[in-house]
Design goal:
- By secondary structure, the chain is of the alpha/beta class.
- About 30% of the residues lie in helices and about 15% in strands.
- The chain contains eleven helices and 15 strands.
- It has an eight-stranded mixed sheet, sandwiched between helices. It has a three-stranded mixed sheet with strand order 7-12-11.
- Strand 3, helix 5 and strand 4 form a beta-alpha-beta unit.
Length: about 400
């Protein structure tokens, strides 16, 4: 594995300078603790990777490459359109990390249902789909959803923060799986495709959704532990997470080990862990990308998030991460339980019932659309009420793969 990834790095002609990130003795001791069993080689490599990686200067394209192709600068603005004139189709692989919990399973089923509905429509560049199951064991969705099984982190390393398994899952999947597409969409179980999704990236510029709560400047003092000043201004860290992101497979293979290492370092640093909270792994991806001088096209129309985004007409993905609480007169009451509500966290141990009640008429379109989309999927998926029960040792159909 080490030789292949190292060779891939050396073959990039645009790498022109070397950077040694400052990990120090504390980092080596920390990684030594983590380096057990099958993870020993990988963790040793990722430590060396951060210490000895070669990082390219910021990517710039000749002016003739941009003329007539992009409407605005893709890095500093949010373009209305970044598709190239006369571009050939560039399909991307849809990848979502997941657990075998009922909470994760019912969301994955809905997501995969809408992926299948949109993938072959005009305008779509959606390729194959993989649920990366980071439990080490197959489950009873293997026949329904194409699944690749990878190992979890060692017991106790995540400190109860399950999202920490995500970058490690991508490291394993990228190393072991056969991925035909040149690009990858990193998605999440609570994503619903609203319309056919084209490949919004451009060459070595991935595309990402800008999150209002990812503020590198606000946390500059802490982030400099992982992105030292000699690397450049803190604004080189994009205001993004790892999802949704469409990125070249070879770039993600370079970033993923660094993303994993920084995620672990942040979680095990009490000060940074407390300051960044539940979005720390998102910051870790943004920092890792900056260390590799990878900047992202920022597309606000990539995704919407009810109840804050009101309409669905100009977005590709609906992200139902926030609770939606309303009075029966349609007034949003955030932070308390509404007379009408939908919150995915109410269904940690079982899927939501079929035929959820629609919100009051005054509630924004995005919330009503969310309920309709969930209802359509649940009414068409078999065994909706019982699939939450985990049955280890699923069948081999549906493109399932066990590779732990």
């Amino acid at each position: 594995m080490l030789e292949r990834i190292s060779s891939a790095r050396e073959n990039h002609s645009f790498r022109k300078m070397s950077v040694r990130a400052k990990l120090g003795r504390q980092e080596l001791c920390f990684l030594a603790f983590l380096s057990i069993g099958a993870l020993f080689i990988t963790y040793s490599f990722t430590t060396a990777f951060i210490n000895h990686q070669t990082v390219s200067p910021p990517r710039k394209l000749a002016s003739e490459e941009w003329e007539g192709r992009l409407l605005v600068d893709p890095v500093t603005k949010m373009p209305e359109r970044t598709k190239k004139l006369g571009q050939e189709r560039s399909p991307f692989h849809v990848a979502v990390t997941a657990t075998d919990s009922p909470y994760s399973r019912w969301q994955c089923r809905i997501m995969y249902y809408w992926y299948k509905k949109k993938m072959d429509l005009p305008g779509s560049e959606m390729g194959k789909f993989t649920r990366i199951l980071h439990t080490g064991l197959p489950d009873n969705l293997m026949d329904e959803i194409p699944t690749f099984v990878v190992d979890p982190l060692p017991d106790g390393v995540d400190k109860g923060y399950v999202v920490l398994h995500r970058p490690w899952a991508f490291v394993q999947w990228l190393e072991k799986a056969k991925i035909e597409e040149e690009y990858i969409l990193m998605a999440e179980p609570d994503h619903i495709f609203l319309k056919p999704l084209p490949n919004l990236s451009y060459k070595d510029y991935p595309v990402a959704f800008p999150f209002f709560y990812i503020k590198p400047k606000k946390h500059e003092r802490l982030l400099r532990k992982y992105y030292p000043e000699e690397m450049g201004p803190i604004t080189n860290i994009d205001p993004i997470g790892n999802s949704p992101v469409i990125i070249k497979k070879e770039l993600l293979a370079e970033i993923a080990p660094t993303w994993m290492n920084i995620s672990l370092k942040i979680k095990h640093d009490p000060e940074t862990d407390k300051a960044l909270g539940w979005v720390q792994e998102m910051y870790a991806y943004a920092v890792a990308s900056a260390l590799h001088n990878v900047r992202h096209i920022l597309r606000k129309d990539f995704m919407l998030q009810p109840p804050w985004d009101i309409r669905t007409t100009n977005a590709y993905i609906l992200h139902f991460t926030y609770g939606c609480d309303y009075t029966m007169k349609g007034k949003l009451i955030y932070g308390q339980r509404g007379e009408w509500r939908f919150d995915k966290r109410d269904f940690l141990d079982f899927p939501p019932p079929r035929n959820l009640s629609l919100p009051p008429p005054e509630v924004p379109q995005s919330v009503a659309s969310l309920i309709k989309l969930i209802n359509e999927a649940s009414s068409n998926l078999p065994n909706w009420d019982t699939i939450g029960e985990v049955e280890v040792g699923g069948g081999s159909g549906g493109g399932a793969t066990t590779n732990s």
